[in-house]
Specification:
Layout (H helix, E strand, L loop, with lengths): L2 E6 L13 H8 L3 E6 L13 E2 L9 E2 L1 H9 L6 E12 L2 H10 L2 E6 L7 H7 L2 E4 L9 H12 L11 H4 L17 E2 L2 E2 L9 H19 L1 H6 L6 H13 L3
Helix pairs in contact: 2-4, 3-5, 7-9
């Protein structure tokens, strides 16, 4: 089955470079993913192709007209479509969302707002999810939608060359990924950790787990606390030592 993704956008050309290289482009070439856009300007009722109006109550920026947006969305949405409002006000998008959407959805529309955004009535009536990529504001939803699309594509079966890759990445076990090394074994006086050259897979696995815990405790303590009850006492002590000393 091909997963269809549609960008609802006033600036469809912003997506063009994303379709030429990388994982998402590979999925399109393999017919595992399809991509299209819909522009609300094509559904405006006047010759000037007006898509926005001044906000009631005053304020800066222009608000996208709900009737135009409804018509544009109706042209691409079907029974099996899930609509995502890409917004800094949404729940934070993560790997769990990416995996879920790749597995459960046949068609995703990403509502990419501009200016002061969409009329709230349109969002409430038509969006299934409201998702954000972090606590910051962009000039429009397109860059955030690209991030979500790329992440979702990684979980579409067959898109990645190595089916293990997505499952070994950061966040899949609740922790950040362990540091990685390659040739040469010594670079600028910095040798690769000896355990990685030992060939002892059990020791390597234990080493990487400790490095995951150290990195996550230092960089993202919130993630460690989220899975705290599932950690062994020795793992909890390792995290506590990092927090006490700041050791990497």
């Amino acid at each position: 089955m091909t997963l269809r993704m549609t960008a609802f956008t006033l600036f469809p050309k912003l997506f063009e470079p994303f379709l030429e290289e990388g994982v998402f482009a590979r999925g399109i070439r393999k017919s595992l993913i399809s991509f299209d856009t819909v522009n609300p300007k094509d559904f405006a009722a006047d010759a000037r192709r007006t898509v926005d109006g001044h906000p009631f109550g005053g304020g800066d920026g222009m608000v996208l007209l709900p009737e135009v947006c409804h018509a544009a969305l109706d042209s691409v949405a079907g029974v099996n479509t899930k609509v995502i409002h890409v917004s800094p006000a949404g729940k934070v998008f993560n790997n769990a969302w990416a995996r879920r959407l790749a597995a459960e959805t046949e068609h995703i529309v990403f509502l990419c707002g501009r200016y002061a955004g969409f009329d709230e009535r349109f969002v409430k009536n038509r969006a299934d999810y409201e998702l954000s990529i972090g606590d910051f504001v962009l000039s429009g939803g397109e860059p955030a939608a690209v991030c979500m699309m790329d992440s979702i594509a990684r979980f579409v079966p067959g898109v990645l060359g190595n089916t293990v890759s997505a499952n070994a990445d950061s966040f899949e076990d609740g922790l950040l990924e362990a540091p990685q090394y390659t040739h040469p074994a010594d670079f600028a006086g910095q040798p690769v950790p000896a355990v990685l050259l030992s060939g002892n897979h059990a020791e390597i696995a234990r080493y990487r787990r400790k490095q995951q815990l150290r990195r996550t405790a230092l960089q993202r303590p919130d993630l460690v606390l989220r899975i705290w009850d599932s950690l062994s006492r020795s793992e909890q002590k390792l995290a506590e030592d990092v927090w006490k000393t700041g050791l990497k």
